[in-house]
UniProtKB/TrEMBL annotation:
EC number: 6.2.1.1
Residues binding Mg(2+), per UniProt: 573, 575, 578
Keyword Iron-sulfur recorded: no
UniProt xrefs under HAMAP family: Ac_CoA_synth
Domain AMP-dependent synthetase/ligase: 114-514
GO cellular component terms given for this protein: cytosol
Gene name of this polypeptide: acs
Domain of life: Bacteria
Species for this entry: Arthrobacter oryzae
Protein name, UniProt field: Acetyl-coenzyme A synthetase
Length: 682
């Protein structure tokens, strides 16, 4: 019998035992180790590349000096810094001490001042097909207006602004306007629920919320404002104003005195606004991400180091030629990729970028390729889950478009399997026109490993330097000290696996968890003293190249989106019918992992089969958001537990992935797995 108190989330087995293969991908590594295809850059590509192999040598010789050079070369500082790195109180780093810099000035005004005001900053493509183009001069004006409007509403330096917007230019404008005045933005992804939004608003004590009436999803209006209204129903919050962008035109409820339209507030504001420098360590934003407990962590990033490393990596990893490239990163601004590689780095670097609001299959499955063809996108940055979806739809679809403009392809968010890598290279990177012509040398792929916490890319090939290997992120970037270590923190030799760590502070590193310095130390700096523990398993191959193997903790990766098992378990047990719940991430061909929940219903609850499952899925949707709805919910009589009451999720994962169940000898009751198997047969 279960000893668990009904209605509580269950304790977990410690997940960091090295024997527990990260995400069950150990066998996959054995196959990957035999991957011997290599794709060196073409001579022409290398000859024109913006960075060369010398950067590694330079960075190795003096890491802080390398970053100081990047900081001064890539950004305009209103006050130069006096010390590159202060690491006197680890793990709390200070980069570019004494320097002052304004993110928005660097992303906007200085390009205009340098005569680049007519360059396109953003090509926006709405899901219904509406378009808008912003030059650097126009975007600068919009951001100045928004900065004035926010200030007029009483938002001052250091105040927090919650942002709950779709992928529209106003999202970028809002972020840059906050940065301009020194307000700290906290973006909440539109796929999160009212409850999730409220808890993030409360944690950060946001003064202003910027949202939209809604957006479009697969041709239909999809609302956002009602979630903001619901989040603010209960009193006790800190929000004074809500600015609403009119996007899809749907009816909205209105709270007089609190709500105001973007058009009445921002569009009406003055276009005069002078940016002042903020301290290099002034907080730029908070972004909540899932950890191993139910409570999301507010990851804190500051200004100078973050801007330096995002700008450097964006230039080096994508081989950015800002005068000629058209860059498109498909990430939503609700995630770190949408912060670093949509809102900040491309604009800091003066690039021209595409922003697309909608889904890849609306109104047809060729939409992305139509966009690439239309804007002549030359750098495309997306996630393996999208690539696998396109593979499923078939290569004839991209073959119907001219993708010859593409010169660099990026991947992020999850391990990319060699099969998807090869498809990406040949079908997308090799397309030389819609008549089925092929490029002689397909575009190089850069698989980029990093995290919300790292702020910027950390491991990635350099497209003009590295001979690429399908499926491997390969090498730490210049100035970054990554290693793979064993249980004791010793570096593993080539050909072996272990835990991914970062040995030295890096400019874009998180500066802490909002309001929780202890949790920051405990989560990242306690597993190995003096090293940052990323939570990922990795192996070094015989060449010393790094292969990412997935998380070694209870964090799942669903379509490149990070969710914790504990978060979903607490949502499930908050439903009156649920006594206990255990969640695992099961391997999924398209989404990388899929959420599978095992639940025990309370004695007095009626199991109505599919209706119960549907109700529980909707309940999770309401508690966390649609992205967290389990793909599968299995009602079971018992959960497998050790004698100390910890759930053996390894066994549940076996069930969820349809494998023979592994060693169950440490279970308190060894009939449990049979009971589960029988209940699932019914
Ligand atoms: O497990 C790693 C995986 O995504 C996690 C970070 O998730 P998040 O903070 O949401 O940031 C995603 C976008 C940067 C990592 O701990 N991950 C990210 N990139 C890769 C990856 N796994 C393998 N290969 C990658 N390129």
């Amino acid at each position: 019998m279960s000893q668990q108190t009904p209605g509580t989330a269950t304790a977990h087995e410690p997940a960091t035992a090295l024997s527990a293969t990260p995400s069950g991908q150990g066998d996959a590594f054995e196959n990957l180790s035999h991957e011997n295809r290599r794709f060196a850059p073409s001579e022409e590509f290398s000859a024109n590349a913006v960075v060369t192999a010398e950067e590694y040598t330079e960075a190795d010789a003096d890491r802080p000096a390398f970053w100081a050079t990047q900081a001064r070369g890539l950004l305009s500082w209103s006050k130069d810094f006096t010390q590159t790195l202060d690491w006197s109180e680890p793990p709390f780093a200070k980069w570019f001490v004494g320097g002052e810099v304004n993110a928005a000035y660097n992303a906007l005004d200085r390009h205009v001042e340098a005569g680049r005001g007519d360059r396109v900053a953003i090509y926006f493509e709405g899901e219904p097909g509406d378009t808008r183009t912003y030059t650097y001069a126009q975007l600068t004006e919009e951001v100045k207006k928004a900065a004035n409007a926010f200030e007029a509403l009483g938002v001052a330096k250091g105040d927090r602004v919650a942002v709950y917007l779709p992928m529209i230019p106003e999202a970028v404008i809002t972020l840059l306007a906050c940065a301009r005045i020194g307000a700290i933005h906290s973006v909440v992804f539109g796929g999160f629920s009212a409850d999730a939004l409220r808890s993030r608003i409360d944690d950060a004590e946001a003064k202003l919320v910027v949202t939209a009436d809604g957006t479009f999803r697969r041709g239909k209006p999809s609302a956002l404002k009602p979630a903001v209204d619901e989040a603010l129903v209960q009193p006790g919050h800190t929000v004074q104003n809500v600015i609403v962008v009119k996007r899809n035109g749907q009816d909205v409820a209105w709270t007089e005195g609190r709500d105001r339209w973007w058009a009445d507030t921002v569009d009406a504001a003055s276009t005069e606004h002078t940016a002042v420098g903020h301290d290099a360590e002034h907080p730029l934003f908070i972004l909540y991400t899932s950890g191993t407990t139910g409570r999301p962590k507010g990851i804190l990033h500051t200004t100078g180091g973050y801007l330096t490393q995002t700008a450097y990596t964006h230039k080096a990893v994508f081989d950015l030629h800002p005068e000629t490239d058209v860059y498109w990163c498909t990430a939503d601004v609700g995630w770190i990729t949408g912060h670093s590689y949509v809102a900040y780095a491309p604009l800091i670097n003066g690039a021209t970028q595409v922003i697309y609001e909608g889904t890849p299959d609306s109104p047809h499955q060729g939409r992305w390729w139509e966009i690439v063809q239309k804007y002549k996108v030359s750098i495309l940055y997306t996630a393996p889950t999208a690539i696998r979806t396109f593979m499923k739809w078939g290569k004839e679809i991209p073959a119907g478009y001219d993708l010859s403009s593409i010169r660099v392809l990026g991947s992020v968010g999850e391990p990319i399997n060699p099969e998807a890598w090869m498809w990406y290279r040949e079908v997308i990177g090799g397309n030389a026109g819609k008549n089925g012509e092929k490029k002689e040398t397909p575009a190089p792929i850069v698989d980029t490993w990093w995290q919300t916490e790292t702020g910027a890319q950390m491991i990635a090939p350099l497209p003009g330097v590295t001979a690429a290997k399908p499926g491997s992120a390969q090498v730490p970037l210049p100035g970054i000290a990554v290693d793979v270590v064993d249980e004791l923190g010793e570096s593993v030799p080539n050909g072996h696996g272990g835990f991914l760590v970062i040995r030295e502070p890096w400019p874009a590193m998180l500066r802490g968890i909002w309001n929780d310095p202890e949790r920051f130390k405990e989560t990242y700096w306690s597993r190995f003293e003096t090293m940052y523990f990323a939570g990922d398993g990795a192996k070094k191959d015989d060449d010393g190249d790094i292969w990412l193997l997935g998380r070694v903790d209870d964090v799942m990766n669903i379509s490149g989106h990070r969710l914790s098992t504990a978060e979903i378990e607490s949502a499930l047990v908050s439903h009156p019918a649920v006594a206990e719940a255990a969640v695992v991430g099961a391997a999924d061909e398209t989404t990388g992992q899929a959420i599978v929940a095992f639940v025990i219903l309370r004695g007095d609850a009626v199991d109505s089969g599919d209706a119960t499952v549907q109700e529980l899925r909707n309940h999770v949707g309401k508690e966390i958001g649609p992205i967290a709805k389990p793909k599968t919910i299995l009602v079971v009589p018992e959960l497998p537990k050790t004698r100390s009451g910890k759930i053996m999720r390894r066994l549940l994962k076996d069930v969820a992935e349809g494998r023979e169940v592994g060693d169950a000898s440490t279970l308190a009751d060894n009939t449990v797995m049979t009971q589960i198997a029988q209940s699932l047969k019914k």
